[in-house]
Amino acid sequence: MGLSLLQRLPGDLIMFDLFTLGILSVAFIAALVDTSLGMCYGTILSPILLIAGYPPEVVVPTILFSQLVVDIGGGLTHTKVKNFTKKDVKVALLVAIPATIFVSLGVFLNVNLPKIITKTYIGLIVTLLGLLLLLGIKLRKTSKRLVFISGIAGFNKGFMGGGFGPVVVSGQIVLNHDVRPSVSIGDIGEIPVCIAGLLAFTVLGNLSFLPIYLIVTIPALIASLIGPHITMKIGQKNYAEKVIGVVTLILGFITILKIIFG
User: Fold this and answer.
1) Which domain holds residue 68?
2) pLDDT tens digits for 109-137?
3) Could you tell me if 119 and 50 are in contact, meaning their C-beta atoms sit under 8 angstroms apart?
């Protein structure tokens, strides 16, 4: 009976339903990965939305808005299950402040640069992040280096919507932080970054509420309440990083190939 009903529906409506279901599924998975491992929400979702045909000036605010909701929901849950405690506040500030400052620069360049440059940067940076995750390369950092890298991460967030978590979370782990606070700080420290990015889009006159915001945000919020519980159970995340590395590498290649072949 379900099949006969589908056969009676217009073809374009069926395609729209399948398309929407795909976006919903990817948003849920991206948020689940992000709130459990502290990375790859924008890195996974940005290329998918670009491949789906959304322009960068729509993709980035969509991710910033939904990421804000994800980080708030995930941050509250991380705090509830004690992944994030009072002793982690200082590191969270070292991440949040420089990232918040540089996100506006990323937004400015996203809005003003030709779209092919924006898409090329996204494809290359996602490919690079995938390679770094696959090879297990992590940066040795002091607190000063964390501030510097957080600034780069904030710029990435405003410019491409992704590339924040993989830099910040991996860096903290290299500094001998446990996985649980590293992941939670990656999410909580991103809250002011997303707010600043959305404000920058508003000031530049390129922010308007679109249906894609809700399509992405609703499943992502649900996943954000689940992810922190997974974080509690993670003792060794090398295998998970390799899987994420493969996914991001593939997405980066697809984005670049789409630019080359149109």
Assistant:
1) 11-261
2) 877 777 677 778 777 877 887 787 678 77
3) yes
